[in-house]
Each structure stands twice: as structure tokens, then as C-alpha cells.
Amino acid sequence: MKIDFSALEEDVVNILENPEYDNHPAREVLGRLWEMNLNQWNRVERITRLSDSYQDMMMQREKSLSARFDKHLRQLEKITRISDHYQRILKQMNSELEQTALMDPLTELPNRRMMMKRLSHEFEPNSQHKVYCVAMVDVDHFKLINDQHGHQIGDDVLVALGQLMSNIVAEDVHIGRWGGEEFLVLLPGKDQGESQSLMEQMRIAIEQLALNFGDKQLTTSVSIGISQYRQGDTVDSLLTRADDALYVAKSLGRNQISLD
Ligand SMILES: Nc1nc2c(ncn2[C@@H]2O[C@H](COP(=O)(O)OP(=O)(O)OP(=O)(O)O)[C@@H](O)[C@H]2O)c(=O)[nH]1
Known about the structure:
This protein is α+β, with helices and mostly antiparallel strands.
């Protein structure tokens, strides 16, 4: 059965306030029960208030914790984005730096370091080429070009020769600037005969090249020393023999090829 507490309370209050029951023996007991009931309700209310404010406090705490967590998450995302961005820039700068370190800035050909790397690679045990030649190309009387026409024109001649040589060779032949007025040509898979005919083609093209600088026109030539890989060769010994052959070509009158 459902108890109607409001009606019950109203009944009790009516009895307690009615002077008719003032001397009734049950009135005092009812009065004390009523007092106890009120105290109980006060306690329940206090506990409820406490519990409500505790819940509020916990919710506030949760809210502020979650706001702080979100803020930290956003900061972390921002830092990650910045770090990713810097890593990309750093990677790009590294690869540009690597490129620069391996390229000759004047002719934009591979530099000596890069050519040494490529040549050393051919000396590794897993290299596929059974035959291999290198050619050392040196511009004849280059000092005279500098002396007569100036250093800038000397530079332009080196650039033009580098371009001409690169245009003549196929992709598997590598041309690099060895230093000063010297170029190195790596001829993988080519024997001395094949290398000689390719380098002869190059020598003739250079000899026939008319270089125009304003009203000045000049021609030049190159001397070339070729060496072919021999059993037991090292990078150094192969290059030294190409250098020796170049020296012979120079001493025989320049603008020619010598083999070793
Ligand atoms: N313009 C210019 N000149 C350079 C560069 N590198 C080296 N040289 C010059 O190249 C010249 C080389 O002179 P030499 O070694 O006497 O050679 P050469 O005059 O070609 O004589 P042979 O090789 O014997 O025919 C020097 O005058 C160097 O200053 C460069 O990057 N630019």
C-alpha cells in the first residue's frame, strides 16, 4: 500500500497543535517521534546537499581536467606539426647539401668526390662490369686562355667543354670535373678500343668547336690518356696509368689520345 506522507504529516501536526490533546498520554510520545522525524529529515537534507556539492565539485574537476587535457593535446599536435615541418625542411636541406657536396658548382658536373665514389663502386666484388676504362681529359694550354682572355672566359670555356662532352656520351658513360682544367670520363663495360673511338669522337668535336664570346672567337683542344682495368688494379693504379698516358699525349704534341 502506498503511504501518503504529506497527509500523514498534516494529521500529526494537527494533533500536536490541537489543545484538546494537550494532556493526552500519547501526545508527548507523538511529539518526540515528530521531533525525531524532523531531525532525520534535516540529516537527510544535509547529506543530500553534501552529496550534491561533492558531485558538482567532481564534475567541475572533471571538466577542468578534460579542458587541460584537450589543451595539452592541441599543444602536442602543434609541436608534432612543427617538428614534422622542420624534419621535412631538414631532409630537403640535407639532400641539397649532399647534392652540392658531390657536384662541381661551375660546370654542374659530378665533382672529383662523386667520381671517386662511382669508380670505387666499380671495384666492389659485386660489380657487373668485366671491362672498364677511364679517360683523363686535359684542356691544352688552358693557362693561355686565362692569360689572353681573362678568367671569366676561362670559366665559360670549361662549362662549354663540359656540356659538349656530356652531349656526346650515352647515359652509361660518366663525365666529371676532376679539378682545374681536367675532366675524368668513366667508361664502364667498354674496352680500350671502344673507349678510344668514343674519346676520339670527343676530341674531334672539341677541336672543331668555335667558342664565341662577344666579338671574340676561340678554339681549343684536349689531350686524353686512357687506361683499361687490369687484374689486380686498384682505383689509384688505374687512375695513375690514365695520368701517365695523358702525360705521354701532352709530350707528343697535345690534341691527341694516348693509351696505357
Ligand atoms: N678560369 C679558370 N681557370 C682555372 C680553373 N682551375 C684552374 N685554372 C687554371 O688552369 C691553368 C692550368 O694551367 P697549366 O696546369 O699550366 O696547364 P695548361 O696551361 O693547360 O698547360 P698544358 O696542360 O700543359 O697544356 C692555371 O692557370 C689555373 O689557374 C678554373 O676553375 N677556372
